[in-house]
Amino acid sequence: MTLHDLGSVIAITLAISVVTGVVGVGVLLLLRRTPLYVQLATALSVGVVSVVASMIAVANLMYLSPHDLVVAIAVAIAAGMSSLLVAATLCVWVASNMRVLSQAATRIGKGEVVVPSTRAGSAEFARVEEALAHTSEQLRLSREREARVEASRRELVAWISHDLRTPLAGIRAMAEALEDDMVDDPGRYHRQMRAQVELLASMVDDLFDLSRIDAGALRLRFEDVSLLDVVSDAVADVRPAAGEREITVDSALPRDLAVRVDPGELSRAIGNLLMNAVQHTPPTAPITVRVERVEDRPTVSVIDQGPGIDADDLPRLFEPGWRGSAARTPHAGSGSPPGAGLGLAIVRGIVSAHDGDVVATNVTGGCRFDIRLPATSARALT
After folding, report:
1. Residue 121 · residue 92 · CB < 8 Å
2. pLDDT value of residue 95
3. What sign does the CA torsion over 151, 157, 160, 166 have?
4. Which residues contact 286 (CB under 8 A, 6 or more apart)?
5. CA 358 to chain centre
């Protein structure tokens, strides 16, 4: 074959390829709203037609005998049909996988959980199917979490409404008695009304603080302070409400070990745990506050000798408004008014704002709450 003949073959092949390619692009534009497997089949068919047409045109120009020309055309058509069959099989696989992915997306939209199948036709389809399965699992967890939050919110509204109504009813009854001159000691009624107002104000303050924590609006003022000093301040604030209970501070930490925290907020969190212990332990039972390092993390533990917490209540203990079961009800001689069930939720919010965590566990003879601060917060006090 001369260079001229070779050039002619190449020119004919390019011309046929360009024409079929342009026609194929036009057809694909017309089919742009059709399913993907139709477009894929069209693209593959264009390629096969281009090859077969080029072979037939070149064979016809090579001045073959009629017999040889028929054989060349038959071979080209047979090869083209075989290629089209393979292309059709690939299109069927693509259509099947696309149908599976579409059904999985529809099921996710209905709230169902999907699992990846083992019939994926390619690694890419398998990865997409695994991603959809992971997404459906995350959506399920999110829906469950949202349902728990909504249930907790409804319980909180119900409990807060009840707790606010009780002192308000008492204030109304005492005010009516004073208006009707039916009391012998007005001063005592005034003191009781003042106590009820202070209780209401405390509940409203707790609600406001909890709303700030939930909204991420709690602003901490970090400074290096002695952890033992923060604990001592919290214990001193709670002692008047502790009655006859003995509150001891047990620590093996040096006084010059500091933590970078907001001392006021951390003291409030410790105080809430102490008040919780005061409310749920007998009048003569001691309460221990232990300050130590656990796995290099500064830890404050409040250990009481109350009745403990039901295992079913532990996961919900720090939810707003959660009171728990009768296994851990406020002790009759606690000497402190019942709250709105927000104290432990506020503790969790304050500790989380410090990048720490708080956990509750039952121990022999009582219950233990641990506030664990980050290891990076500890430093030498200068």
Report:
1. no
2. 77
3. negative
4. 245, 246, 247, 248, 305
5. 18
Distance CA 301, CA 370 (A): 4
- Spatial distance between the Cα atoms of 234 and 274, rounded to a whole number of angstroms: 8
pLDDT tens for 226-280 read 888 899 888 888 888 777 778 888 887 766 678 899 998 999 899 989 988 888 8
Beta-carbon contacts of residue 27 (< 8 Å; ≥ 6 apart) = 42, 46
Name, in order, each residue with C-beta under 8 angstroms of 76's C-beta and a sequence gap of 6 or more. 51, 52, 55, 56, 59
Biggest alpha carbon distance in the chain?
Answer: 133
Contact 137, 113 (CB under 8 A): yes
50, 16 in Cβ contact below 8 A? yes
Check if the beta carbon of residue 337 is closer than 8 Å to that of residue 330. no
CB 52 within 8 A of CB 76: yes
How far is CA 295 from each of CA 177, 211, 372, rounded to the nearest angstrom? 60, 33, 10
Q: What is d(CA 359, CA 368) in angstroms, rounded to the nearest whole number?
A: 8
**pTM of the entire predicted model:** 0.57
Please work out, in degrees rounded to the nearest 5, the angle formed at the alpha carbon of residue 194 by the alpha carbons of 165 and 180. Answer: 80
Six token digits for residue 370: 């641990």
- Torsion angles phi and psi, residue 236, rounded to 5: -65, -35
372 vs 294: CA distance, rounded Å: 8
pLDDT tens-digit readout, 330-358: 444 444 445 556 788 888 989 998 999 99
Handedness of CA 180, 182, 186, 189 (dihedral sign): negative
HSE at residue 93, side-chain half, CA atoms within 13 A, is: 14
